[in-house]
């Protein structure tokens, strides 16, 4: 982020100047480009070490811009709980995501992330349309899992945990974006600082092995920027202008993005069955309808 964009006024101006769908498009690319690079670092740094680099880099970049200590200090009790919840979610979600990627193809892990979002929609708005969406997405994921992945239950466990926490990230992240892009990024910076405190004792020892290798350290920093800085800031800029229902609909492109990036960067070439399963997940995401937002939220979004 440039110094001009990083200011509260600059963030709000950037959010208004660029269509929210464009911000989402940038986020969609980096959401899986960073993890693809992270997988290449697993043999050198370790899974938990790479996760530490991701969170640590993001926390250190956000700190001077968003001043998380001030955000936490000035927040009311409700906002502090929101920041704590988002921080815990980011720490555990990113770690479980990498642990899943260490054992499963990225296209499968990405597809599983979205079954939970459709399940939430079905719970909040029980319609035949949402039921059909959930069925299509679940069938698509089972096609991706196939028999060959049934022997790796631990990988599927981490992927399922990541999927559940991804729902939490969408809900809490959208809540944090209320009040405009600048406030959302400030809350994101505070949550990332909390995530760093949580992950510090878990991944530091693995990450420390790379401290004597400058190029590996730079690669770890690059993973953090690509994975947690660029996509999360773009998410906030998009969320500040898009209703949750619209944002959820745009998520339909992410499984395809993950598959393309995995094929290019990791040479994980999908089969025809994989492509059909991914297509079913994407159709399910596009088909599902989240619960309607309240009139008060609609009014706030129009004002913003």
TrEMBL record:
Q: Which InterPro entries match?
A: EamA_dom, EmrE-like
The lineage, from the top, is: Bacteria, Pseudomonadati, Pseudomonadota, Alphaproteobacteria, Hyphomicrobiales
Protein's organism: Pelagibacterium lentulum
Signal peptide limits = none
The record's listing under Pfam families reads: EamA (PF00892)
Name assigned to this protein: Membrane protein
Q: Which residues form a coiled coil?
A: none
Keywords carried by this UniProt record: Membrane, Transmembrane, Transmembrane helix
Q: Where are the transmembrane segments?
A: 21-45, 81-101, 107-125, 132-150, 156-172, 184-205, 211-234, 246-269
Q: Where is each EamA domain found?
A: 154-287
Q: Name one GO cellular component term.
A: membrane
